[in-house]
Amino acid sequence: MVGLISLVYVVILGIVYCDCSKTDENTTVWPPANFWTVMGVLPIIIMSFGCHMNAFLVTDDLKNRTQKRVDIVSTAAISTAIVIFIPAMVFPYITFGYDVEALSLQNLSVNYIPVQIGYVALAVSEVCSFPLQVFPCRRSLTVLLTRGRELKPAAELKLRVILTVCIVLISLVVAIFVNSLGVTFSLLGLIGGDCTSFIMPCYLYCMLTRNDIESEGRVRWYLSAAIFVIGLVLVPICLYGIIYTDILHPGS
């Protein structure tokens, strides 16, 4: 909750400091610059809603678990993300246009105390959300390394510590040497978000129910298969979009 409140503060900051009078006349919401720039930033949007890796943790902690309650939680989570992320994208763009930074706080003067608080709030939000990314990552690595075998408590604790330290160190190195959050988010969204949102869920569903399509429903099965194919197609297209936007034509 603390992390969510901190993130909301940063979004509100972007709304408060929005100044439509500064908008360049060439800055438009529609039509977009071109197809490849849209594909270059699409993975960021995918990653914004790619919280599937925490679905198992949330379901385990849910009291009186039923499919209906899980659906309510999932819908509430996605709806909350929409309410937060849309103004976070729109208002800084309205003010700064094509000059908006990947981290819109960087467009605001740090001489303002609310902006300084915003940087602290953003750091708090990241600290609170980081474990939510580490836990499923560590769990997946544990399963891969042990191949699902049960470990003794001491061995399991040792493996957890080693994996956690490795993940934190890798994250620290990336944070130190990567200057552009835009490229980072795009690549993460393409590799992680696309896989966890479209490719793997649909693939697993289709494979698990391929012999029982009639009872599952043909429409649902084929729609899942179609989304799986779309997810695969997006990988090379969005990858070239990232290269086009950030390397070949930066600032486009």
Automatic annotation (TrEMBL):
| UniProt KW keywords | Membrane, Signal, Transmembrane, Transmembrane helix
Q: Where is the Amino acid transporter transmembrane domain?
A: 2-243
GO MF terms listed in the record are: L-amino acid transmembrane transporter activity
Report the leader peptide range: 1-18
**One GO cellular component, as annotated:** membrane
What are the subcellular locations of this protein? Membrane
Please give the Pfam families that the UniProt record associates with this protein: Aa_trans (PF01490)
**Transmembrane intervals:** 34-58, 70-96, 116-136, 157-178, 184-208, 220-243
> What name does the UniProt record give this protein?
Amino acid transporter, putative
Annotated source species: Perkinsus marinus (strain ATCC 50983 / TXsc)
